[in-house]
Amino acid sequence: MTIEYATPYRRASRIPAEPGKPYFIEKGEGDRAHLFGDLITVYAGGEQTENAFNFFTVEGPKGKIIPAHLHPDTYEVFYVTDGAVRLFVEDTGGEQQEKLLTPGDFGFVPKNCPHAYRMERHHSRVVGVAAGPGGTFERFFENLGVPTEQLGLPGAPVVPPAEKFATVPRRYDVRFLPDHQWRTG
């Protein structure tokens, strides 16, 4: 049995809204949101860690590249547990790289580095952790996407209108780069 809490973001959550409270979450029972073709599940966020880090999963089908973006103050980790994910990154000097990550592979994106990813196989899953002085960005997913109680992928992709990308609050430390071009594959 898991306990449900009311939070500022949801009427029911299995994640307590305040720090300093131990908790357990069964597989898939974190705060979920649909964005693009993916299901994002947050297991720990800024509220629980005093904005030190977050822990989430992103799972989805083979699909299109997620829009290029960067986090001015946040470091991000990509750890692939299922399928395959192509990670595109650019360092602060403008050098671009891409790497196909498969189960057990790890990718690190420093703060202020443009990046994007694309699920390369159906049923791919990434474990993500983000940390930095800018706080955490996990509530960005439900702000740009749609909160859901569903355990699975969205029936149809949730693609926000272009103007919504500019409305994402700065507190989420996500800056989209609509004109960014990847010179790698």
Automatic annotation (TrEMBL):
Keywords: Dioxygenase, Oxidoreductase. The keyword NAD does not apply. One of its GO terms (molecular function) is dioxygenase activity. CDD domains: cupin_QDO_N_C. SUPFAM superfamilies: RmlC-like cupins. The keyword Oxidoreductase applies. Residues 60-119 form the Cupin type-2 domain. Pfam families: Cupin_2. PANTHER family: PUTATIVE (AFU_ORTHOLOGUE AFUA_8G07350)-RELATED. This is Quercetin 2,3-dioxygenase.
